[in-house]
Structures are given as C-alpha cells and as structure tokens.
C-alpha cells in the first residue's frame, strides 16, 4: 500500500495526542494514590489540583496540539475535504465514521477541562475560597471529565486501528496484533512526551517526594510500553512474513489449470490501483527499516529511561533524546505498516510473492 | 445509508465467458465511452495524450498465460533441472509448450457483491447497494474521497478520480438498463453490447430460470475469491478444455509399412503424400 503521509501524520500525531490524553485523563480522574477520594471541600488549592506536576497540565495542552494537528493532516487525505462532516453519519457500519464520532465526542471533555482550567486560573487569584467550591474546581467534575477524556481517547485510537484491521483484502492489516499495537504505541508516544514535559523547569512545587514518585512512574511506564511495543511489532512481523499462498491463479479462479502468469497488463501506464496498492519499495528495505524502528522507537527510550531512573541527573537530555528517537521510530513503524502491506488486487497484476 | 439492504431477490450482474473472450478491450472502451457521457460521468483523464495518461476505467482486461508448467514455476523448474543435470534436454521439459498452455483474457470489473465491504466501510453513505436489484453504486455528491472503499475491495473494482476528487465504479450501466428512451434490445450494459465475441452476458442471477443463470449452471460458472465472503454476483465461465493435439497425433501415427514391398508407383505416391 502506498504510504500516504497525511495518514501517517494523522495516526502518529493524533495517536500520540490521544495517548497523552489517556494518561492525563486518568490522572485528572484522580487515580493518583494520594489524591484521595474524600471530598475536597476545603479551601486548600493544593489539594484541589491533586498535586499533579506541571507536566500534566502541559501534557493536556500538548495533547490538544497533537490531536488537532493530526486531524487536520487527515483531512488532507480526502478528495473533497469540505464534505468531511458527512463522515459522522454511518457509525452503524463504518469504523471510519465511528472514529470521527469518537474524536468529536472526545473534544467535549477536552473542551470542558480546558474551560475549567481557564476558569480556575482566572479565579484563583481573587477568590478567598469560601465554603462553596465553584463547579470548575469541584473534584467530581474533574473526575468525570478526566475519565471521559481518557475513555474517549482510547475509543478513538481503537476505532482508528479497526479501520485498518477490518480490511480483509490487506493481509498485513487484517491481523489481531494491529489493534493492540496502535493502542500501545499511542500510549508509548504519549509517555515520551509526558516524560519530556516533566523534565522542564517547573513553577509549581509539589514536593521532592512526589516529584520522585512521578519520575519513577513515568520511567517505569516508558520501560513497560517500549517492551510491549517491541514485542508486538516482533510478533506482527513474524506473522506477516509467513509466505502467502494465494496466487494469480487463485485470484482469477483458474488454479485448476495450473499456474498462471500475466503476460499483458490491462494498461500501459500506472493506474490508481497500481499506484495506491502496488507499492514495493518498503519490502525491499524492510529489514533495515524494521531495525531502525526497533532501535529508535523502543530500545533507545527504554535504555535511557532505565539510565535516568538510576541517574536522575540525566533527566532532560535523556527525555529529549528519547522523545525524538521514539517518535522517529513510531513514524518508521507507521510508514512500514502501510508501505509493507500487500493488497489482494495486485494478484491480478501478477504479483505472486514479490 | 451504508448498512446493507436485506438480501434482494433480484441480483443483476454479468456473466463473463473466459472461453470466448479474446482480450480486445472493446468492453473497456465502450464502457469508458458510455460512462464518460452517462449520468455518473464524466470520467476525465489527466494528461490523456501525454506521456503519463491517468484516469478511471470501470473495466480492465488482463491477459494471462495459464496451464501446467507455464509461468514462473515452470520456468524456474526447467532452469534448475537444466543447471543441475546439465545433460541433454529432458523430454518432459516444464517449459511452456503450445500443447499445455492457453491464453486467458480476463476482464475485471465490479462484481456487485451481495455483502460488499466497500459499502459498509463508507463513512458517509455515498457508497450503497440498491435494495431493488443489488447494484452497488457511489453517490458522487456525498463521496468525500477518503478511498477506504477502494482499499476494502479485494477485486480492485473501484478507482479514485484524482480529477474529480471522488470514487468511481461500474454502475452496471444503470442509466442504460432501465432507460426507456433506448430500444429494448439496447437496454444492456455498454460492455455487453460491445463485445464482439458475445463473451459478456447480462441478466438476473437471482432468478434460477434466467438465461444467465442457466448459462452459469451449464458451464460451471464461478465467483472470484469467494473466501473473502463478499459473495460476488458476477460469474465467470471457465475456458472449455482445449482439444489436446496429442489425440489427433495418435490417430495419425502410421502403422508400420514396409515400403520396399510396395510397387514403385505406390512408393512414389507414399513419398509424395508424406511430404
């Protein structure tokens, strides 16, 4: 399949953005241990924001940036971008439509949270925080918005992955590993961004103990998701490398006559089908590209995460290198995911096992 | 609405005879001509007379060499045999020989599947299957050009018009087959009308008594790649078995004749006729 950059940018950028929102959403919904479930009716602003580091708020904004940038890129793939709104109508049958709706719904808690944060930053200065807490600081609102943000983000990436994995003619996509891979890589990308943001100088002091705990959680998270991502990719490649047995003879239904060779193509020049579905370059270089993906995408971030857990002073440098290396790896992974995949229509053009 | 309609009784489609198709591309050209001006047209080409022509065709005719030992498999085997033994050519060489190879010309177009994925993946409702006759169509005023349907079709029936920004596909000449301004005999798809060897037949494959259904039953018509589960309506008729030259040759093999026993005249006749 032709690796179209609009789709690669969309799935990588929005995927990372939704990954961030999953992490941020879970944090907002106060799963963080010391956040406590007791009502936060006290005027203690520190408690009201649940003592999350600056990075979480920054990650929320970064999520916005990435998600919107990715969605804009995806519209670039359409032949008629102005009609994109029509894609919200067929959720009963189409994963693409479900993805659109899910993305749209996810903007509701994202916008809600954004407004709450704006209100809070405007109010904090001139309120003495009396007995009643305004709703935008109410922990229940934060809980709800965080949980829906995380769930909506998860659902959107799930739908994206299903667009591809539901297509039977494309053997490399119609695979059970595809959906988990999309989810894991989204969270992996999100973690790398969060890690980088967490090393930025902060104004909001949450105490050394908490900071150390956050660093530990993020570091372990990067380690875990690097390992998961690499494992899923290795399984996936092993599966798609299995030799396919379908031939041109099967495609035209004349396998009983023996083998079949195409001696004349229907057209002298490339057409839409051969252009879109006959991409071969990636398979030629797949070994090297897969290695780049594994090293840059997973090995480097995992090693640096481990190192910076042992040597916290590495912090910022390690996080920046991991982020750039990791995102490069994910881009290569996504490029390969499209470019390596074979479409059954190419059998008619005589592609046996090229 | 991209959810599929309930199974239809009428299943309009094509039956294509691979035995008589000569690969002349008349169907493809006639299709392009009609549909360029039909109600689903135009079918504009980019750079039509230049070095890189590009455009949508609903019909593509492939040409294959089929038969035991043909193709790469045979060539590979013959080659490895030649290199391994290095002896005189084996009498049962796997290289293609005229006796076991046939050309098959294979027109490829939309199969108007009963459960097509190209319809259900459409996010806008532009792609739909008609409840009344099962024809699969694209509403070009709703299509956003996401091209997901082309990916979803294993048969390559859909082509994206870069010029128009929408997906286009075979309409089974829906603007001909119900067209009351045409003579009744002409209410057939353009490809069927144009075929010089009558290799294409149009009719209702849902009706067991129709001419096309009878033809399919008689000739063992088959659907393409049924393993995908999209249940194509169109059927292909396999090439009839070739008359194997060897049978005739066997009959012609001369009984042993001792010509020295014959009279000079008969010997001369035998010589002349044996030339």
What's the helix and strand layout?
The complex is a heterodimer of chains A (354) and B (275).
Chain A: H1 5-28, H2 45-48, H3 54-75, H4 95-123, H5 139-165, H6 178-198, H7 208-240, H8 248-251, E1 260-264, H9 272-277, H10 281-284, H11 286-310, H12 315-339
Helix pairs in contact in A: 1-3, 1-5, 1-6, 1-12, 3-6, 4-5, 5-6, 6-7, 6-12, 7-11, 11-12
Chain B: E1 12-17, H1 26-37, E2 45-46, E3 54-55, E4 60-66, H2 71-85, E5 102-108, H3 117-120, E6 127-129, E7 136-138, H4 148-152, E8 158-161, E9 166-169, H5 174-177, H6 190-194, E10 200-204, H7 211-219, E11 235-237, H8 245-252, H9 264-274
Parallel strand pairs in B: 1-11
Antiparallel strand pairs in B: 1-10, 2-3, 4-5, 6-7, 8-9
Account of the 3D structure:
The complex is a heterodimer of chains A (354) and B (275). By secondary structure, chain A is mainly alpha-helical. Chain A has a single domain, classed as Up-down Bundle (Formate dehydrogenase/DMSO reductase fold), CATH 1.20.1630. Helices cover 63% and strands 1% of the residues of chain A. Chain A has twelve helices and one strand, in the order H-H-H-H-H-H-H-H-E-H-H-H-H. Chain A has helices at residues 5-28, 45-48, 54-75, 95-123, 139-165, 178-198, 208-240, 248-251, 272-277, 281-284, 286-310, 315-339; one strand at residues 260-264. In chain A, helix 1 packs antiparallel against helix 5 (139-165) and helix 7 (208-240) runs antiparallel to helix 11. Chain B is of the alpha+beta class and 275 residues long. Residues 70-93 and 246-251 of chain B have low confidence and may be disordered. Chain B has helices at 26-37, 71-85, 117-120, 148-152, 174-177, 190-194, 211-219, 245-252, 264-274, and strands at 12-17, 45-46, 54-55, 60-66, 102-108, 127-129, 136-138, 158-161, 166-169, 200-204, 235-237. Chain B has a domain at 12-59 and 109-237: 2-Layer Sandwich (Alpha-Beta Plaits), CATH 3.30.70. In chain B, 27% of the residues lie in helices and 17% in strands. The chains are: A mainly alpha (354), B alpha+beta (275). Chains A and B meet through helix 4, helix 8, strand 1 and helix 9 of A and strand 4, helix 2, strand 5, helix 3 and helix 4 of B. Strand 1 of chain A pairs antiparallel with strand 4 of chain B, so a sheet runs across the interface.
